[in-house]
Design goal:
- The protein has 20 helices and no strands.
- The protein has 462 residues and is an all-alpha fold.
- It folds into two domains: 229 residues, no CATH class; 211 residues, no CATH class.
- Helix 2 runs parallel beside helix 9 and helix 3 packs across helix 5.
Length: 462
């Protein structure tokens, strides 16, 4: 007796978790691809209308906004996705109330810190920009918990449409303001539009409960019990994701920082996609289908990881091979220095995509303390390399820091994931060897471009 295998179309149309995971993976890739395509299109137009220093200054504004958000993140979304009461209206409304309060406090903190940060970076205009940027977390705080509920249930279609539509509208506003103003204020004022649109429409276009103010004692205990370790982890995540730009803003010119930001944006696309897939798809799957529960779960997750890692590494290698030509094709001569940086950033990111799916496994299992420990260790290692690299080797030191940090952090990841049966040594060894071979070959092919960049490394940024 034989059993017919289900057709792919039947899987996708089915209402079960597997089908939703497949659809959600597609929606996540669509959202990520669409966001980056829109960002690139807007970037190409805006770099011709404005000047590199504007993008360097806005990079610092973004570091402050991201830092403020991550330094106060108690894992509200993660709590809704992971908690048994994640569909309870009282739990959701309590989470929404906490989210609003957090947004107001963040906005006040950014406004109070605007002057000191402008003095630290020796950029007087930064104070005025940050006073306006302080509105962003307040706006984001009123967004509906329906966004988190959609992630919990792996129903992402409308959420993707909302975010892409809002981003497109925000970019159009930036371009219109750049044509009218011709200053950095086009970027700053335009950056307010997309989050406002998302916050408003999230209460209308995403299915779910109607949020109201509420403080349920048990819900508060669950939120902060889960979030106290997530708080530490997201602080660590800030230093991993934004530490390079925070440090470079002090050690190099704003023009150089703007050029670096262009290179980083293009070269880090596969790594950012890995993180998005982990947040939107792997985290809910780890929570509902833990690899430690059965060999079947473990085998399916390992097979998926092999395919995802291969695709992401192929993307990084392609970007490294074409980086300089792509920069010269897309940008004018003011930004051509980003070409060599882009190649080196893509090569340095190869080890990170191999292990990108590991770190959320303890969190999905409810062990937020272990998750926080992994994140803090990783952040300490990477930020240490970033700071020393920027101080002693300038731009090159910062670019190579994540590569060294990923290798040093790997043993800690292994220790943190083995207890959940999530470590796959065959996958890791095979792809580290592949990364070494591919990275060495690409470096050799681009040696005439990369050797001058490496030779010019120094405290002044080369």
């Amino acid at each position: 007796m034989t059993t017919a295998l289900p057709r792919f179309g039947d899987l996708v149309s089915d209402g079960g978790m597997a089908a939703r995971a497949i659809r959600s993976t597609g929606f996540t890739v669509l959202r990520f691809g669409g966001q980056n395509a829109l960002r690139l299109a807007g970037n190409l137009l805006l770099t011709r209308l404005l000047f590199p220093e504007a993008f360097g200054t806005m990079a610092i504004v973004q570091v402050v906004l991201t830092g403020a958000a991550m330094f106060s993140d108690f894992g509200i979304r993660g709590s809704i996705v992971q908690d048994a009461r994640g569909d309870d209206p009282d739990f959701l409304n309590t989470a929404w109330t906490v989210q609003i309060l957090r947004g107001v406090i963040l906005g006040a903190a950014i406004a109070l810190g605007a002057g000191p940060l402008a003095a630290f970076y020796d950029t007087p205009l930064l104070a005025d920009l940050l006073m306006v940027a302080a509105v962003v977390p307040v706006i984001q705080g009123v967004a509906s918990t329906r966004l988190a509920t959609a992630s919990r249930q792996l129903f992402l279609g409308r959420m993707v449409a909302l975010h892409l539509g809002a981003q497109a509208a925000g970019i159009l506003v930036m371009i219109a303001l750049a044509l009218c103003l011709g200053t950095i204020w086009a970027l700053m004022l335009g950056a307010l539009f997309a989050p406002a649109l998302v916050a408003g429409l999230s209460h209308v276009v995403i299915p779910g409960i109607r949020n109201r103010l509420c403080l349920d004692r048990d819900a508060l205990g669950r939120l902060f019990g889960f979030g106290k370790y997530v708080f530490l982890a997201t602080i660590a995540g800030f230093f991993i994701a934004q530490g390079d730009k925070a440090v470079l803003g002090k050690f190099v010119s704003l023009t150089d920082l703007g050029v670096y930001n262009i290179a980083f944006f293009l070269a880090s696309v596969p790594l950012l996609l890995a993180q998005k897939l982990g947040q939107a798809v792997l985290f809910p799957l780890y929570a509902s289908r833990p690899p430690a529960a059965s060999a079947h779960n473990r085998a399916r997750i390992n097979r998926a990881r092999v395919l995802v890692t291969g695709a992401l590494m192929a993307g990084l290698c392609a970007l490294a091979l074409t980086g300089d030509g792509l920069i010269r094709l897309l940008y004018d001569a003011r930004y051509h220095g980003a070409g060599a940086m882009m190649v080196l950033i893509a090569l340095a990111a190869l080890p990170r995509v191999i292990t990108a799916s590991y770190v959320s496994l303890p969190l999905a299992a409810g062990a937020s303390g272990r998750y926080a420990a992994l994140m803090v260790i990783g952040a300490t290692i990477q930020f240490g390399f970033v700071y020393v690299g920027a101080r002693d080797y300038g731009m090159v030191g910062v670019i190579l820091a994540p590569l060294l940090a990923a290798l040093v952090h790997y043993p800690f990841l292994v220790l943190g994931t083995r207890r959940y049966r999530g470590w796959d040594p065959v996958h890791d060894l095979a792809y580290h060897l592949a990364a070494l071979a591919a990275g060495g070959t690409i470096f050799w092919l681009n040696r005439d471009l990369l050797l001058p960049l490496l030779a010019g490394a120094g405290p002044a940024g080369g």
